[in-house]
Amino acid sequence: MTTDRQLPATRTSEIDSICYRVPLIPVLTIHNLEDAVPLCRALYEGGLTTLEVTLRTDCALQALHRLRDALPEASIGAGTVITLGQYRQAEEAGVDFVVTPGTTEQLYEYGTRSPVPLLPGIATMTEALTGWQYGYRRFKFFPAEACGGVAALKAFAGPLRDAQFCPTGGITPDNAANYLKLRNVMCVGGSWVMPAELIERADWGAIRALAEETMRDIGG
Ligand SMILES: O=C(O)C(=O)C[C@H](O)[C@H](O)COP(=O)(O)O
Questions:
Q1: Above 0.90 for ipTM, yes or no?
Q2: Helix (H, G, I), strand (E, B) or coil at 175
Q3: Residue 42 in contact with residue 207, Cβ under 8 Å?
Q4: Which CATH number fits domain 10-211: 2.60.40.420, 2.40.240.50, 3.40.50.1970, 3.20.20.70?
Q5: Cα 173 to ligand 1 centroid, rounded to whole Å
Q6: Residue of 14, 45, 52, 200 with catalytic role
């Protein structure tokens, strides 16, 4: 393992300015390219100004290109980045940040020299320590509920005193506040603000209202 490369110190504050901007980062999987802009605009106008689009669908990269033009003020991230090739494609799409569900050494290393900041996914203390050696102090905790949830994050806070997390996976309107109370949580990630039935009906007004309600409930 090489740890010669270190994350520039400014990277941590770049991630902070993206993740402390909102209590919730909506994690979107776009199935229909035409939905991308109206869906994200509805979330953005509802107050959720940082958005993560997963690279799980064929149209995801195209969606990111369109979103970059349509919502220049939003912080737009590419999620589910699991290869270096996808990281580079996300850079080309003009994203503000890259999120991984779990992180290889190769991705950690590339994140130290990419122009686009990385929020690396971890599920265990050991995985976080691998990133720690490269200088990473901000992580996505995924899948949060399945991997110990609030109790695990409380335990991480002891040894990883400078670390901050974005727990994602199984976060709901009912448990989000418990995470946001923790001193080592920046924001949470989740998909609940865009129910599939509202997307199918193209009911962007209802999605905007749900985003506004979320901001009222957990925006503190
Ligand atoms: O694919 C990735 O990279 C992911 O990060 C997975 C998403 O974060 C979760 O699918 C969101 O979890 P839910 O809110 O429980 O739906």
A1: yes
A2: coil
A3: yes
A4: 3.20.20.70
A5: 15
A6: 52
